[in-house]
Amino acid sequence: MTDTTSTTDSRTARRSPHETDTLPPDIAQRARRLLVDLARPERKGYIALAFLLLAFGIGNAIGPAFIAQAMDQGIPAAIDGDTAALAVPLIVFLLVTILTGVADFFGTRMTGTLAQRLMVALRKRLFGHVQKLGISYHERSTSGRLVARQTSDMENIQVFLTGSLQEMAIGLTAMGAIAVTLIVMDVRLAIVVFLGFIPLLAVSIASNRAQRRNQRRTRTAIAKVIVHIVETLGGIRAVQSFRREDANIRHIVHEDSEYRNATAASLRNVAWFAASTRLIGNLSMAAVLLVGGWLVIGDTLQIGMLTAFLLYVRRFYGPLDELVQAVTMYQSASAALEKITAVLDAAPEVVEPTSPTPLPARGGFRGEGEPGRLPEGGDGHRPATSGDDRDLGGGRLVEFDDVEFAYGDGVPVLPRFDLTIPAGQTVALVGATGAGKSTLVKLLTRFYDPTAGRVRLDGVDLRDVADADLRAAAVMVTQESYLFGGSIAENIRIGRPDASDEDVRVAAHAVGLTPFIEQMPDGFATDVRKRGGRLSSGQRQLVSFARAFLADPDVLVLDEATAHLDIPSERQVQEALATVLEGRTAVIIAHRLSTVEIADRVLVMEAGRIIEDGAPGVLIDSGGRFARLHSAWEDSRA
Amino acid sequence: MRDLLRFWPDIRPRAWRYVVSILLALVSTGVGLFIPVLTGRAVDGPIAQRDVAGLVAVVLLVVAVGFGESIAQLVRRMLTAGMTADWEVLWRRRLFTHLQDLDIAHHDEWDSGQMLSRATNDLTQLRRFTAFGLPFLVITPCLLVVGGVILSFIHPVFVALLVLMAIPTMVGVAWFNSRYKLAARAAQDTMGEVSTSVEESVQGIRVLLAFGRSPWAAARFHAIVERLRAHELEKVRLDAWLFGAIMLLPQLALVAFAAVGAWGVVAGWATIGQTVAAITLMMYLRMPIEMFGFLLADALMAATAATRYWELMDRRPRITDSGLPDHAPRDPSPGVLEFDEVVFQHEDAATPLLTGVSLRIERGETVALVGTTGSGKTATAALVPRLFDVTRGAVRVDGHDVRDLSLADLRSRIGVAFEEPILFSATVRDNVAMGTHAVDGSAAIDDDRVWEALEVAQAADFVRALPDRLDTEVGEQGLSLSGGQRQRIALARAVAGHPRFLVLDDPLSAVDVETEDRVQYGLRRVLAATTALIVAHRPSTAALADRVAVMDAGRIVAVGGHEELLATSAVYRELMGATV
Q1: What percent of chain A has pLDDT over 70?
Q2: Which residues contact A463 (CB under 8 A, 6 or more apart)?
Q3: Comparing C-alpha atoms, which of A314, A329, A331, A327 is closest to residue A278?
Q4: For the domain that residue A592 is a member of, what is the CATH number?
Q5: Which of B191, B199, B236 sits opposite A162 (nearest CB)?
Q6: Which CATH superfamily does the domain covering B424-498 fall into?
Q7: Which residues neighbour B160 within 8 Å (Cβ) at sequence distance 6 or greater?
Q8: Chain A CA closest to residue B371
Q9: What dotted CATH number matches B2-313?
Q10: A553 to chain B: nearest residue by CA?
Q11: Domain total in chain A
Q12: Is residue A205's pLDDT more than 50?
């Protein structure tokens, strides 16, 4: 590999299977169905809007007739002293104009309001759906692509809805009104004009098809550009340290050239479309002149009628330019909507039950909203409580019942197994990378559903538990400690949004965050992104722990959650854990076996199977795999 | 508007196309005017005189002119089709390049959504404006001026009427202008917030799922979306007033023309022909005047987009090449990494993070940096590749102040691994080799070297098991790897270029104990030939080092061997978990 550009190319080629370029063939229909679905609640609004636009279009079309009347008859009459003949058409014209203006005013506002309602509904629906899609979808997709769907694609739809849609409606209404006028004036000449529709329709269909293709290309290309920008901004430290800048620029120029070509193709298509509609308009004008002239010569048509007719024909083709533009915007918006539809059509793999089974009530020992307040009677020894004496502990019984799990490719990551974790037990899960520890806890927290068998919490299949109940009962902390924009307090409060300031303080204190937070410019109110609130990865991890402490779940899962902590911090967290876990069920994955100090039971995993299971002391004495791991760890501490 | 003008240098090389296309637009409009004249002639002439041959001649003329008009239109649009798309791409490339050059402190200050929305939505708005709005913004006033001139030839009184109409419009437009600008700015900024919120909700999905906080994220998002809606509706309300008012204007002019014209005819200072001509002309000018409303709104949105674009472009990177000539290729003290009384304070922070760090790492030596969370270890490490610059003091690499070397040169001497491994959507090979090209951008390393680096990081075994080995796509768009695997690939990347200096920030935190043992074995060989600074949280990592430096509250409080410090430093004992 010597040339970075060539790898860029080959990468693009190879990435295409991941790419959602290939939308299902009926995506256009589905997108339309989505649109109808979104518009349905506003039915009345759209009907009212249609009337407004109709009024506007008609007013706009007939207004000039009064001016013509004023010119042809009014002015000569006024000169002769009959001012009424001039004033009446002018006043009528003014009234029509004002009414049209009012219709335009309300039409614009209503279009905007309805468009915004639809946009807000669509944005909320997509956002909610993306959240529901579950972890497996997110592992396959990229954040940049989902960002593109929710930003650039949305803007495109909005531009069409707020601008072009109205233009299109007005243009079509005006054409319709003039068409009617033409028929009323002279059917024969009207037919000549309407003959022009045949080539017009053919051109429109062809152009429409080409535009759909171009706009689909554009949407796909811009999504790739956005993916690349998002990734670069997210990894800017590595980009700069490894001088990735030039390669990135080459990459984005490559992606953007596809966007450029598709956009240019679309604009060229507009050029052809606009020019040919204009030509058709001019030719039908010539035809009307020829036929009309011939009819006048044959004495079957008034010469004045021909003059008026010619004026109307010109006006009839007037809005075509705007229509051409609007059609392009329409295709762009529908390409964007198709992409959005594809995301909305993706079925969540982890589905909320329609009629959830409530989890058995929890023990009522906990003080309202006070994290870490614990039952009396824990004397350091935690009995493996069963469901019967729940009153004494806040844990829950976890059962893996004949569970098997495989990813999409069908290769089982976890072959069939059974596992029971009694309520209140703290279990340490150890084993090499790839042994299946994370997968196991992801089944327990329902990030995935098992391929076969059942995972149960207090006897209830997780698939029957309402999501809110499950998340209140079981919480997982991972080594990724993502912070959201906002203050530190807000970030901790993710654990329990209704927690009081005092609760947040207590949780932060328990994990040892307080000294850092006090040093920050605004304390708990410090914005984590800006104004000196930069947190180290260790501090971020402590925030994650504070969240979990605040959430105060019955079942706590820690997946490598102490990886970024220094030893004193880890100690502090563990001390806090020892208190908090009292009576809770906990599953802890940690490479540092210090965790084992607070565990009642150790499970050793290898290649998806649990190969050792027992109390830590027993396993160490038995001289098995855990014993070896443990002594290696003891060595590493020295 | 000034921000729009700043794009002129990009437009200038192709300005002639613009001029030609605007001229063609004027021509096709003029030709379009000619057709009614022709048809009028035909009606009055051949048709009235029952002259079939003459009729056919005029019809042929209309056909010819019709072709002319549509060809002019085709050429005009073809001329600008690729051009405006080129500009959007050019501006995006420039912004993207600039973003990559901006130092980390800038990036920390800005929400990524605000950067992204400038690179996409705003630039698309600008392209649309250059493609459609701008030419017509030039043409429309031309048409109005030409119309006004013709009108003055017909009779000056009509011009006076037109001006009278224009004055209230101008006032209205000025009022609209300032308000619309505010609304457009607010809307576009809020779109950036939407972007940020969406990005967070997708990138933080694991946290949201684990705590069941998707409803919380949705509520935050809804609040932003509702704000966006409010700003958009404000724009719509202003649009409604403007479009409504601007539509009314030519109609009022028509009525005034007819009334005043008739009065003029009666009074004898105008003819009926003049009045009819003035009205006909005004009817023709209706379209461009009405369009002016759309154009104005479009121009204001484009101006806002331009302002937002230049806001970001005008941020100067604070960390740049020295500007010194590439002096003294000879390194005064090769292989030495030195911190000299380094003080570092984030620009927006109240107190310095590092209060005077001095440390000299000799050629081939490895020093571990230990300290509690937040003591300044990561900041110290980030100063070496100049992700941040020192506030006072100096960091020296090979005897050069890091600020005196070009960034490319400096960064090519250093291999870095961050606490949280960053993998890019690329193959394993690309990810490992990405830092290894020479300063001139050529000659990245071959596969043997990639494998060698993977071996050091104990990543070779699992990479061999990947479906396409080195060609396997990893990162966000590829295979998802475990935290430990990602960390090892990032470590391989740091060592792949055989850099003279290694800066590793807790490089093994996510690696399991058994693997860690093996990585350390491999790493030891590399470290023997490299000057290294390793941020360590564990005794096992600290044990890799020849010396250990203990940090506390922004300074180094003790330096010595691992055993030595265990014996002498209470802070160190606590950090290594040796007390309690």
Answers
A1: 90
A2: A351, A353, A446, A449, A454
A3: A314
A4: 3.40.50.300
A5: B236
A6: P-loop containing nucleotide triphosphate hydrolases (3.40.50.300)
A7: none
A8: A566
A9: 1.20.1560.10
A10: B211
A11: 2
A12: yes
Is the CB of residue A186 less than 8 Å from the CB of residue A309? yes
Question: Could you tell me if residue B212 is left (phi over 0), alpha (psi between -120 and 50 degrees) or otherwise beta?
Answer: left
Q: Kindly state whether residues A294 and A209 are assigned to the same domain.
A: yes
Spatial distance between the Cα atoms of A75 and B306, rounded to a whole number of angstroms: 50
Task: Give me the sheet containing A601-606, strands edge to edge.
Answer: A474-478, A555-559, A585-589, A426-430, A601-606, A609-614
User: What are the tens digits of pLDDT across the range B17-71?
Assistant: 888 988 888 887 777 677 777 777 777 777 778 888 888 888 898 899 889 888 9
**Window 421-440 of B, Cβ < 8 Å to A:** 422, 424-427, 429-430, 433-435, 437
Q: How far apart are CA A256 and CA B338, in angstroms?
A: 43
Of B73, B255, B447, the CB nearest to A278: B73
Give the ipTM.
Answer: 0.88
Contact A479 B56 (CB under 8 A): no
Domain shared by A392 and A341, yes or no: no
Quickly count: other Cβ atoms within 10 Å of residue A330's Cβ.
Answer: 19
**b or e along B483-492 (b: 16 or more beta carbons within 10 Å of the residue's beta carbon)?**
bbbbbbbbbb
C-beta atoms of B55 and A247 within 8 A? no
Mutate which: A567, A593, A606, A631, vs B, most B CBs within 10 A: A567
Least CB-CB distance to B213: which of A130, A286, A494?
Answer: A494
How many angstroms away from the CA of A418 is the closest CA of chain B? 24
Q: Which ranges constitute the DSSP H helices of A133-244?
A: 135-140, 143-150, 152-159, 165-185, 187-195, 197-234, 236-241
Q: What are the counts of helices (DSSP H) followed by strands (DSSP E) for chain A? A: 24, 10
* Calpha distance B469→B463 (Å, rounded): 5
The three-class DSSP label of residue B503 is strand
Contact A484 B483 (CB under 8 A): no
The Cα A422–Cα A86 span in angstroms is 96
DSSP characters for A247-272?
Answer: HHHHHHHHHHHHHHHHHHHHHHHHHH
pLDDT per residue as tens digits for the range A248-288: 898 899 989 999 999 999 999 999 998 999 899 889 888 98
pLDDT of residue A360: 80
pTM of the model: 0.86
Q: Which residue from A1, A135, A591 is facing B446, i.e. has the nearest CB? A: A1
How many other C-beta atoms can be found within 10 angstroms of the C-beta atom of residue A367?
9
Query: Helix or strand or coil: residue A422?
Result: coil
Cross-chain Cβ contact B516/A64 below 8 Å: no
Q: What is the span of the domain harbouring residue A573?
A: 387-476+553-637
| Interface test with chain A among B373, B477, B576, by most A beta carbons within 10 Å | B373
Closest CA–CA distance from residue B477 to any residue of chain A (Å): 6
Q: Which of 250-289 (B) contact A at CB < 8 A?
A: 251-252, 254-255, 258-259, 261-262, 265-266, 272, 275-276, 279-280, 283, 287
E runs forming strands in A506-547: none
Q: Which candidate in B188, B318, B411, B476 is best for mutational testing of the A interface (most A CBs within 10 A)? A: B476
- Give the Cα separation of A135 and A156 in Å (integer): 28
From A241, A249, A261, residue closest to B97, measured CB to CB: A249
Going by the DSSP 8-state scheme, the letter that residue A487 receives in this structure is B
Smallest Cα distance from B330 to chain A, Å:
23
- For CATH 1.20.1560.10, list the domain ranges present in chain B: 2-313
Token representation of residue A379: 């004397």
Q: Which residues of chain B lie closer than 8 angstroms to A371, CB-CB?
A: none
Query: Which of A106, A235, A471 has the CB atom closest to B424's CB atom?
Result: A235
Question: Of A448, A14, A360, which Cα lies nearest the Cα of B479?
Answer: A14
Beta-ladder partners of A556: A475, A586
